[in-house]
């Protein structure tokens, strides 16, 4: 049972085919970010807010109560059938997320008080193409009621506590998250490989489009020059 309820994982782990490649990336690090906010008024009622962005450009959004979350792709980056599969996976993930929080509450009643807000922020950031550094920054940070709670350390695939006073709630949560391959090694694979490769693919597509645009521009200029009358030539009807 714990194996199915434990995946405190980003929706993208369920959805490696999220193709978010039509926007121009902003200056600075090319990045893919995901934000999920869950507000629990009690263990059984939650409202979600969230989005995904590429290079600072919003690409997806979700909002609504746990029983009726609306999930939108803001750009037509997937066909209807693929997007239907994506939505199904996301709804399943959110149900599992709520079940995990409820499980922690049942095991740590004295440490959990409601209402509570959980914020998950994760993604990968590549340095600018002209940077001397070639290493991507990857991260997954979890905050509880506005305070840092736990984060993922990709080097050794471990969830670690944020700097704060030790608590039984933190210890219990870390014990669960660090007990399963899915929440450790699959998380590292997603951040270091899937996410980074996706952004690199976006860079390649962006550069290809830029070269194609430059080529068409040159062809257009050449054609205009070809049909311009030579100097000193006068057209007489």
TrEMBL record:
InterPro entries assigned: Endothetial_C_recpt, MHC_I-like_Ag-recog, MHC_I-like_Ag-recog_sf, MHC_I/II-like_Ag-recog
Record's GO cellular component terms: extracellular space
Annotated GO MF terms: signaling receptor activity
Organism whose genome encodes this protein: Heterocephalus glaber (Naked mole rat)
Biological process terms in GO annotation: negative regulation of coagulation
Signal sequence interval, chain numbering: 1-21
Name this polypeptide is given: Endothelial protein C receptor isoform X4
Ranges of residues in domain MHC class I-like antigen recognition-like: 12-201
Keyword terms of this UniProt record: Glycoprotein, Receptor, Signal
Superkingdom per UniProt: Eukaryota
Pfam family, one: MHC_I_3
